[in-house]
Design a protein that fits this description.
About 60% of the residues lie in helices and about 10% in strands. By secondary structure, it is α+β, with helices and mostly antiparallel strands. The strands form 3 sheets. The protein has a 5-stranded antiparallel β-sheet.
Amino acid sequence: MDIKWKNYSHSIITKIIVFIIAILCFLGIAQAVIEVEIVNDGNFSSVTEDHYFESKAYVEESEALIRDLTSLVGKYKNEEHILSGNTIDEDEWKRIEDNLYYSEFQHSRSYNPKLGEEKNYDTFKSEFADKLKEEKDNLIKEDLREFHKIVQNLEEYELYFYASDGTNVFANSSRTTKEQFEAFPASMMIEEYKQEFYPKETKNNEHLSRITRQIDRLDATNTVLYVAFSEPFLQQKALKWQEGKAIAKTNLYRLVGFLAGFILSFSYLVLVVGRTSFSDKELRFRPVEKLYNDVNIVICILLFPLWIVLVDDVFENMLNMFPIISIPIASVTLLLILILVKHVKNRTLIKHTLIYTLISKVVTFIGDVYKSGSVGIKTVLLVIGYPILIALTFFMFPITIGVAAWFAYKKVKSFQTIQEGVEMIKEGNLHHRIEINGKGEFAKLSSNVNSITDGLKKAVDSELKSERLKTELITNVSHDIRNPLTSIITYVDLLKQEKDPTKNAEYIEVLEQKAQRLKLLTDDLFEASKASSGNIPVDLVKIDIVSLITQGLGEVNDKIEEMGLDMKLNHPDEKVYVTADGRLLWRSIENVLSNIFKYALERSRVYIDIEDVGNEIRISFKNISAYELNISADELMERFKRGDESRNSQGSGLGLSIAKNLIELQKGKFNIHIDGDLFKAIIHLPKFPPENE
């Protein structure tokens, strides 16, 4: 079944059949729309209208009459009123007067630059007055012609009407009272501020506003306007409306059916055009389908108005000619549209145009020369090449000049952006970024300036951090060294003065402790300096990390028992080897353990996890701090920083910094994390490759 479907779904016969169905459906849609347009003025809404009095046709029958009557009683009134100039709109007349004054003034200046003299100004005023009178007479004559035309039109209306503004009366019968017009089956009564419409179905007419808008513009004072429909007139119009509604209803169903058929058939053609199966990814173009897309679109645009003109001439008189005219034009148009669809699917809608081809060839040629030349050659090329481009594309001059203006504007804007950015950077704003999109010279220049800015910013940040660290280093070293040094000086003075041998022994013991403390600080400072400078020999070998840590924990077991710590070592069952220097690695781990012994909460658990994470081995140390960790991890990694800000512990504050530098010397990574009172030190070391690698 699938094979049969594949054979038929993209066959040429299936495509031709569906193509014919699409053309027939299109003709059915067009014929339905045109029939409603000719018979029912294109009004499909009559299908939803329940009664003639609720229809658009009913309003249209009286709309023109109401418009003429409101013009008579509201504006023109009578000939004397028009001749007196009262129908001329004041705002419109002021605009005409201003324009005429300016025109005459400029005309006079062109002949006499010394218009400011008295006699010339009088001449100008006289000529302006004559022109103004002539203009006013023309407006009055135009209003008189319009007035007589409306009065003449009133004789042609089949409706009965009576209109008055209290002085002037316009009527086509002897009926003058409201009661006489109410006797008709349908009427419209406007009396001063009151508007009445009969019968009651008229009030539900959604098109009634087209009449009320005209009435609302009238001066309601003393205004009376009656319009009535006779019984024969209403029967004739209602019958015509019923016929139009039937035609609209029939054609609406036809329109929906043919539209559904056209959508389905056209969708199928769009889906299969250019391919031989659903799995076929390559689009095939026949020689005739290589017509440029812009030429294709122009032909489609020209065929549509040609079809409209031909159909308009033959549809009413020679209905049988409609298919003969429409089928060839619709077929050609649909074929051209399907070719465009092919190019859309092939993503060549723009590229396969005559304009794009010409411009791309010229641009490619100029671009090749432009990229290979110096700035002087580029400037000459632009000066000479652009006029040539204009000459070659004269038929689309507005487009080329627009592209050139846009290109120039973009370049100038890019240059101004770079100029403003350099000024801001020069003022010291190193955080400013110059954003230029694209790959041109300005984009490259802005990227280079941003790189320079980034370098300067990093240098400034590094210098500021270095200065801050130097200041803190001096402060912390001074503090830590001054305490034992002060004690040594103090006890030396006491030793000189003390005569009791027993106390001399105590003083010497204190001096020894303080001297050892001072030696420890000095050794740590020296080791931190060597580690940060990298001036330490490194011998990277294969090390069993589990054995190293297990052995190290055994060496510090006394300290662990003294603090009551519960050490939890988690590691894989198989051997885990890292590439490191055993001496430096143990020194780093020892510093981390020493940090734990100084700051961990007594009788708490310490977790040491060894994990294999691909090409690295991760060693993490986790403990609960006895001190409140109210500083960040970055700060804690700085030299002479301690977990207790009061600096009451005996550490130097260099342990973690030394550990970090030593691990990095072994091509590893050292990080710490703080989560509340939980302190985590994490070491990443490169994994020792297996023998077969």
